[in-house]
Specification:
Helices cover 78% and strands 0% of the residues. The protein is mainly α.
């Protein structure tokens, strides 16, 4: 139902998209995959880890609700909804890797919020930053860089896990904080209509 745009040649991707891509890559790098969290939970419990699937189910339930909530907020306040979700979820690592069950549960809730925002709003925002003529390429580039950043960050956190759990947590929080800072700049530009 979008109006047909004038057929003008694509002029590349705007600066705001590149900044946004950098922010998303930083957030992805600091976002631990669940298998790493599950490994930690298994090693901490020293048992069969029967509660780990329940924690994952909790995170997936929160993911679904967060995706809906972030999407609803995105339609009203734009990128500020994503910035809020990233800021909140950046605290998952100290909690999920704490070794305390109650804190781990809270960490998984925050992890679910982050995943929900990344699966919905983070991708949807790309459409508002690029022209219809470059949208397909922009989505492909975004998904490729985001996936590569998540892979590289996860690999690094896997290595850090063997050497320094505090280092892993610090890397996770720092990468997401850098991403949030860049998102703040991008949201400010979007709010100013640039």
């Amino acid at each position: 139902f979008e109006p047909e745009p004038e057929m003008t040649p694509a002029k590349g991707l705007p600066k705001v998209f590149w900044l946004y891509l950098l922010a998303a890559a930083c957030v992805a790098m600091g976002f631990a995959d669940f298998p790493l969290i599950a490994l930690h939970l298994q090693q901490q419990s020293g048992s069969d880890g029967a509660g780990i699937p329940l924690l994952y189910a909790l995170a997936m339930g929160v993911d679904a609700l967060a995706a809906l909530g972030c999407g609803w907020l995105f339609d009203r306040v734009g990128l500020w909804s994503l910035l809020g979700a990233v800021a909140v979820s950046a605290g998952f690592a100290p909690l999920a890797f704490s070794g305390t069950y109650a804190l781990t549960v809270l960490g998984m809730v925050l992890w679910g919020i982050g995943l929900g925002a990344q699966e919905s709003v983070m991708k949807a925002a790309v459409a508002s930053m690029v022209t219809p003529q470059t949208r397909g390429f922009a989505f492909g580039l975004f998904t490729s860089v985001y996936g590569l950043a998540w892979f590289l960050g996860s690999a690094l956190m896997g290595v850090l896990y063997d050497f320094s759990l505090p280092g892993l947590v610090a890397f996770s929080v720092a990468a997401q904080a850098v991403g949030a800072a860049i998102l703040l700049a991008v949201a400010g530009q979007a709010g100013a209509g640039q």
